[in-house]
Amino acid sequence: xxxxxxRSGKIWYxxxxxxxxxxxxxxxxxxLHYASCVFExxxxxxxxxxxxxxxxxxxxxxxxxxGFEIPYTEEEINSASNKIIATQKVENGYVRPVVWxxxxxxxxxxxxxxxxxxxxxWEWGSYFDPKLKIEGIKLNISSWRRPAxxxxxxxxxxxxxYMICTLSKHEAEKQGYTDSLMLDHEGxxxxxxxxxxxxxxxxxxxxxxxxxxxxxxxxxxxxxxxAKSKNIKVHERKIKPGELKNFVGCFLTGTAAEVTPVSCxxxxxxxxxxxIIELNKSYQDLVKKKKAA
Length: 293
Prior knowledge:
By secondary structure, the chain is of the alpha+beta class.
């Protein structure tokens, strides 16, 4: 894989198209030291960004929650996102808008820092090995928990919130798993390291944790809409780890993960059932329909 600092083309950077290798930030940027940074992850399907406006709106919400103002309008960021995928000729890939505080101040306080914005894009296939998306991925249960909602801006896509996700995923990979299930501060099921989670019971109904201490994913909401359109009942509720043995199916949802089946969580085994296969097919049909519209 080509390192991301060695790639070619352009990145939209503070309103300009800049050569990929020339996009730099100072080592003393506040965003690097104090995690005053927010971002989005977006998918490109046949040259069109899926749910671009929703992602951009969330980016602005995250920035507001972090106490800084993006120096562009949502319409300008949408336009820039479309411009960069056209410039880079990305047909099926990923878009990463990122916003951070600059290097004018180096302390906890950062009232006078400049707000920088960059948007990069690249061709990108499946987040997980395509074979695993058929057979189901394996999760362990992380030793790290999602923090309590009164300790962090939990409903943002902010960089600092992903530190324990990286630790959890590395821990899982060392143990031979693909990803990790994270519990919330009360010990309930929360999410995977970069995706929301659903379970299917013996009656064909779906269960998913209430997103009250972690991000309510755009893909999560989309899949819930798809399930309801198929008359599949969806229960958004608190789920205890002890309940996992009662479910027959499990899958993850996310911009990168899309709809990915799970074959096991620790000792709990799940089947890649027809319901999950159909939800994935409907999701793929939806993104293809949206791109063609």
